[in-house]
Amino acid sequence: MDATEERPVRVLVVDDSRTIRQQVRHALEDSGCELLEAADGVEGLDVIESTPDLGVVICDVNMPQMDGLQMLERVRDGGHDVPVVMLTTEGQPELIRQAKEFGARGWMVKPIAPEHLRKVVDKLATAAR
Amino acid sequence: MTHTRYDLAREIKQSLERQFPGFEVSVVDDAKTSGSFVGIVGVRGPGEIGSGGVAASAPVLCALVTDVPETELNMLDWAGELANHMLGRVKLALGPRARSLRASSPVVLPHASMAFTSTDTLYLFELRNGDHHFIAWFDLDLGDADPNTCAEEDPDGLPGQIILFD
After folding, report:
1. Residues A46, A49: Cα–Cα separation, whole Å
2. Exposed (0-12), middle (13-18) or buried (19+): which is B9, by Cβ within 10 Å?
3. Which of A110, B21, B62, B88 fits a 20 to 30 Å CA distance from B156?
4. Per-residue pLDDT tens digits for A103-127
5. Quick one: closest CA in B to A86, which residue?
6. How confident is the model over A84-105, as a mean pLDDT?
């Protein structure tokens, strides 16, 4: 195993709910991920722009200041190709289609299913390496 | 055909029963709560405006979440997120009729005493599981939307699932 394989996957969770951020942290830290947190799209964008080796971003849709889809659009406009999965209570086909157009890699409807989340993060992080 | 109050109350009740399988869900005309954590989420659409909310004690909130320590800040946050989850699931259950509704960020209140009385658009529910009980309400007016329009997706198939894009 080389040094690259041993490096933990850095995962950013962007959600205005601290309980959701804690649940994501709990679900992923046990599988060796390093978690970063942001409470809205503005903070999330700052972290993405200042963290070049980010493996996966998990992002809420409805948030104050800048929502998740706006953040996603700004991320792609900025040339970042980090995989982004939306995590939300919304399930409208139009929003899912919009997220796909903006370059999201997936859409998860809350509540969090930790096992599904771990598998998706592992799959996306592995593909990105 | 347009919505009757009974139709919508029944559909919301069924959605709550799916979300909280251990709880008995009752439609009630009046409800009171004291010392509760309250979460409220507003919704708006082109011609609609409304809200949904939950009022629950800290022990009940704790029983409804995992991996989150029982601190006042966490319980406040979770009350808002729970209201968000409930409203999201109800929207999914109502399908195209609620498609245009967008949710606001939650508003939360600590240690609140509240009294509710149902109205033509305010639907009140009590959820009970042994000693645990809490209040949920939805203030929704879907106007002339056809109640026979079903959800396009299985509302129970989406939560917890991840759709991966190609």
Report:
1. 5
2. middle
3. B62
4. 999 999 998 989 999 999 999 988 8
5. B162
6. 92
